[in-house]
Amino acid sequence: GLRKPTVEEITHARSAIVTPSLFGSSLEEIMLRQQDLYPDNKLPWVQTQLSQQVLALGGEQTEGIFRIPGDIDEVNALKLQVDQWRIPSSLSDPNVPASLLKLWYRELEEPVIPQQFYKECISNYENPDAAVAVVQLLPELNRLVLCYLIHFLQIFAQPSNVGRTKMDVNNLAMVMAPNCLRCQSDDPRVIFENTRKEMSFLRMLIVHLDTSFIKGLV
């Protein structure tokens, strides 16, 4: 049934009129907004913080991570906190920041891989070199954000972690591809066919993209 909004939610909704949310914005807007708080960050604070929380809570050893959703009330509560540039110390379930992280990617105004590169991605879903080459064509901010995500997923793709999470590279690509690429077609057959290609493209990146440079970047 319908529940009454909390005081915190009402306050947040009020402030959101003046201060746009970190969810549903463009990457450029997010970077502009964090300029005062984190002027030296090359990546969105929300992306790095939520990713680090998943790992800090042992997400890479949690069965079904990214597939099993976090408790919806806890995810919503965390979203309110993140929009105030805060990460609570009370988090215990890695599925909560993992769910919110997926939501952040999914709700970006423009996907991490911008629409003009979509065709190139699904044309090169079986070619590792061509898939990696597409990444190098992206605008710098999108390239860094995507490389950070792939570097993050590569941690989960390690065999020692897959044994625990039951989330191999195919499963990781399946759950994350819809958050990185957006098919514009209304034709169910095209959507179905492209879904497979989107997954394969992301799988290529997880397996073949060199993201070692990300380690020193925040």
From TrEMBL:
PROSITE patterns: RHOGAP. GO terms for biological process: signal transduction. Pfam families: RhoGAP (PF00620). One of its GO terms (molecular function) is GTPase activator activity. It comes from the Eukaryota. One of its GO terms (cellular component) is cytoplasm. Residues 25-213 form the Rho-GAP domain. InterPro entries: Rho_GTPase_activation_prot, RhoGAP_dom. This is RHG39 protein. It comes from Podargus strigoides.
